[in-house]
Amino acid sequence: MKNILVTGGAGFIGANFVPYFIQNNLDYHLINLDLLTYAGNLENVSEVENHPRYTFVQGDICDRNFVEDLFQKYQFHDVIHFAAESHVDNSISGPEAFIKTNVLGTFNLLDTARKLWMSAPNQYNVGFENSRFHHVSTDEVYGTLGETGLFEETTPYAPNSPYSASKAGSDMIVRSYFHTYGMNVVTTNCSNNYGPKQHDEKLIPTIIRKAIKGENIPIYGDGKNVRDWLYVLDHCKGIELAFKIGKSGETYNIGGRNERNNLYIVDTVCSILNELQPKSEGTYQDQITFVKDRPGHDLRYAIDATKIENELGWKADENFESGILKTVRWYLEKFKNK
Questions:
Q1: Which of 34, 78, 85, 140 is catalytic?
Q2: Which one of 28, 54, 163, 284 is the catalytic residue?
Q3: What is the pTM of this model?
Q4: Which of 64, 144, 158, 281 would be a feasible disulfide site paired with 298, CB 3.0-4.6 Å?
């Protein structure tokens, strides 16, 4: 039985990945390391809390001594690294936490793994010859797009927020450990995820929560910012594929090929709510309110997923219309008791 470290496994994407990975990989014991900040919630992984191949550890990846002790205790064969500060608005008001967690935290994990797994550049220790460090990143490192074009793995980095700059920094450190030490690393950059277990402050949960409370539904600027929406379970399947069969040192972009602007998102969610839980008067669209845009708000992200589709055989199972219906139903169930 191999031990795998999954960081940030109580957050949105990690908490969808953890049960999926445990179910599909019988040869692994999964240790979930999460600091349980505002973005992490153990309720997100309640379905596996008593699983014999699951262990939860609360701790901070910025604490080097703690990280080293954890690696010594569990002798991790692999790492899948989700843990990150990721709320862009928070990175504008408090960027320091993003630099610490996303850059220093990633370095601590990488360097500790290298020292456990390797004796020298390109020399793996016995038992760790196939050990892999998988770094989960974001399309925001590429900056913003005009009305046309797609982010490819070769697109130059041009981050525009402290959040995306910190993720770009962590990506570069991971890359350097492949080129300098020959470390077995792989990076995935994803587009906007949506689905169950997302933090209530994010766009789609906010729309649903505000709508059913009868409150104004806030949309930044003119609502024309475009994102490529990826259902979270499709992302988890892509991560698993890249972790298992991706080529060492490579980056794979995972995108849903579902470009939608925020106006479309809010109208679609409201239309589903009109059907599933109609108001006594009017429609949920009546609650849409436009608010001042945030600084550095990228106009458009869209990912070209050709590489992971062609090289690894990945394909998104959900389109936006099928995924958003599942998502709205999940949040209605969550919010009905709040």
A1: 140
A2: 163
A3: 0.94
A4: 144
**163 assigned to active site:** yes
Strands 259-261 and 226-231: antiparallel
Q: Is 139 a catalytic residue?
A: yes
Per-residue pLDDT of the chain (338 residues; tens, 9 = 90+): 999 999 999 999 999 999 999 999 999 999 999 999 888 899 999 999 999 999 999 999 999 999 999 999 999 999 999 998 766 666 566 788 889 999 999 999 999 999 999 999 999 999 999 999 999 999 999 998 888 889 999 999 999 888 999 999 999 999 999 999 999 999 999 999 999 999 998 899 999 999 999 999 999 988 888 889 999 999 999 999 999 999 999 999 999 889 999 999 999 999 999 999 999 999 999 999 999 887 767 788 889 999 999 999 999 999 999 999 999 999 999 998 76
Catalytic residue among 139, 171, 234, 318: 139
